[in-house]
Amino acid sequence: MSELYPLKLEPFLKEKIWGGAALVNRYHKKADPNLKYGESWELSAVSDNLSVVCNGFLAGNNIEELIEVYMGDITGDTVFEKFGNEFPLLIKLIEAREDLSIQVHPGNNLAKERHQAYGKTEMWYILESERNSKIFTGFKDPVTREYYIESVKNGNIADLMNVENPVPGDTFFTPAGRIHAIGAGIVLVEIQQTSDITYRIFDWNRKNPNGKSRELHAELALDAIDFAATGKNKIKKELILNKTENLVSCEFFNTNIISFNERIEKDYNLIDSFVVYICIDGEFLIRWDGNSEPVTKGETVLLPAMIKEVMLEPVPESKLLEIFIKTNLSRQSLNN
Question: Are residues 257 and 215 in the same domain?
């Protein structure tokens, strides 16, 4: 069997009523510049959007086919035992030219019961934010179910929400059950469980070009909402050059950020998981076993679990997100 290598994947561009042109113009996605794109699905195992490799001898194979053949060599043995052929994360770039709907995602138990699917815990890393842009995340104060229902009926749900003004570099963690919305003028990276289940609660009375409103799921959302999920939610980290800084660590994913202008050696021998790199600024080379793969701003790369040692070389400087799943093995190593 041929040795695996860092895998680049063909993005899926999604037209959205609230989208814009940044993903094409500034993050180098190949698509019609005259259309409004809200999302670029960088790495997906959602059944009708299976990511396809676009570099090397595995080009043309989708993520499910790769895992079926290479199993734990791609995802890590512990991850493969849990998820099988399904890649457990969905990674997107999102541009909101207008406010996205106020929404919520179910947790694993409710999603399995209703949809035979995984729930959706997610995080956002802010790449761009216009002045006065907003992130709606959780409630300002705990609310009762009854008061919430009344506010939805009256169209006042936004008044109950905690609102924060993001700047580039901010992180927001949104566990399943936390009500939220991305405000206008923001570009971000979204890292989430592999799930496409969204309960739309309020869509700002928006109409599509045909004069129709989008479907709402207020009833379904009721049992998914954590009414105690309140308060400020912004995660702000001061970056130290050439050092790995953790942004979010949860059972579903671990996300670090690295800003570097020198070569960085990475040793993943104690992490039984794939690693995903997202280049959010500049460019860099991944070097391994005498080979190299260039990565530029806006690109996402899947590093198979069997590749345990790499060198990251900035050209001449770069910033990236590093994502993996903390297995029992990696938890033990990180605690030592």
Answer: no
The C-alpha atoms of residue 82 and residue 274 are separated, in whole angstroms, by: 14
C-alpha–C-alpha distance, residues 220 and 230, integer Å: 21
* Cα distance between residue 67 and residue 279, in whole Å: 24
Query: Model's pTM, two decimal places?
Result: 0.95
CA 192 – CA 329 distance, rounded (Å): 22
Contact 114, 106 (CB under 8 A): yes
- State the total domains in the chain: 2
Structural domain span for residue 320: 243-335
Q: Are residues 311 and 177 in the same domain?
A: no
**For 48-57, what is each residue's pLDDT tens digit?**
999 999 999 9
User: For residue range 140-194, what is the model confidence (pLDDT) as tens digits?
Assistant: 999 999 999 999 999 999 999 999 999 999 999 999 999 999 999 999 999 999 9
- Calpha distance 97→214 (Å, rounded): 17
Contact 235, 170 (CB under 8 A): yes
